[in-house]
Design goal:
The structure is a single chain. It is built from 13 helices and seven strands. By secondary structure, the protein is of the alpha/beta class. The strands form two sheets. The protein has a five-stranded mixed beta sheet. The protein has a two-stranded antiparallel sheet with strand order 6-7. The chain has three domains: 8-113, Ribonuclease H-like superfamily/Ribonuclease H (Nucleotidyltransferase, domain 5, 2-Layer Sandwich), CATH 3.30.420.10; 126-248; 251-298 and 312-342, no CATH class. α1 (43-55) crosses α2 (70-77), α4 (125-157) packs across α10 (266-276) and α10 (266-276) packs antiparallel against α12 (316-330). The relative contact order is 0.08.
Length: 343
Amino acid sequence: MMEAILECCAGLDIHQETVVACILSGPLDQRPRAKIRTFGTLTDELLELGEWLTELGCTHVAMESTGVYWKPIWNVLEAFDLELLLANAHHIKNLPGRKTDMKDAEWIAKLLRCGLLENSFVPPVEIRELRDLTGYRKKLVHDATAEKNRIYKLLQDANVKLTIHMSDIFGVSGWMLLQKIVDGEVITMDFLETQMKGALKHKSPKLLQSLNSRLRSHHRSMIRLSWEHLLYVEKAIADVEEQIRQNLADKQEAFELLLTVPGVNENAAAIILAKIGTDISVFKSDHSLVAWSGVSPGNHGSAGEKKRQRARSGNSMLKAILCECAWAASVTRGTRLSTRYWS
């Protein structure tokens, strides 16, 4: 029999439309009494759930991380005097056999009562808001890249060979040329000689020759659609970045400290803060943080033999940005990280 450490606790089995709550209460040395109720997931019904839990003297509540359905329950129950715990669904699987929502809720409550659940990291509200903003910025950047690729393919289809002479057709000079193409204007040698930037001024004859293409009205129409969407997405990116800067205003000390790390830029620092927050005491140690991020190899041994184990998935967005920072740090000059890499 498992040893109990909590006198009154609850387990929640969460679904899109319903939440099954099981409260286990009683002396630690006796078999607990179970009370089970089913609630809806509308705000009023979740407030009723919170009041029911507090009225019965519940102190700790555990739930599994089921998709995004746990988030509204967590947000509502945060307002009550309850110790909330989010458990990895993979770690609390019930034993095979009869499976019902009530039994699942009771099983979660039993594990919580005996202290067998490990809490997943759930940052405070302001950090969760920063997570939403940085995640949305990443999605917008992907959308912008997709539109740029579409424009590039349409130019190639029309045999507009700007990329032969321009490293970035979406730079300042390329932007002006694309605007002319979208508007259907004639690009002259005088325009190229006066408006192109840098070394492109001396490539005006070659640029004019590369613009001699088979650009049909269909190509121009498709480029215009992608062009207008790209402008909208880039404006949205600027708006989101402004909101990120406002969110980081009260975290400036931690933000500036991250910028001192080789390879970490403003975008990377914002993502790192959005994922781990400013209070890293929630992690047991630096090894625990590294493992949670997914940049540490697994540890799997049996019969005295250590077996090969892949690194865990971790937090995908944090893992990706840390890898980017590591590669950037490897090419910095005069830093310990770069020296370590090249050694």
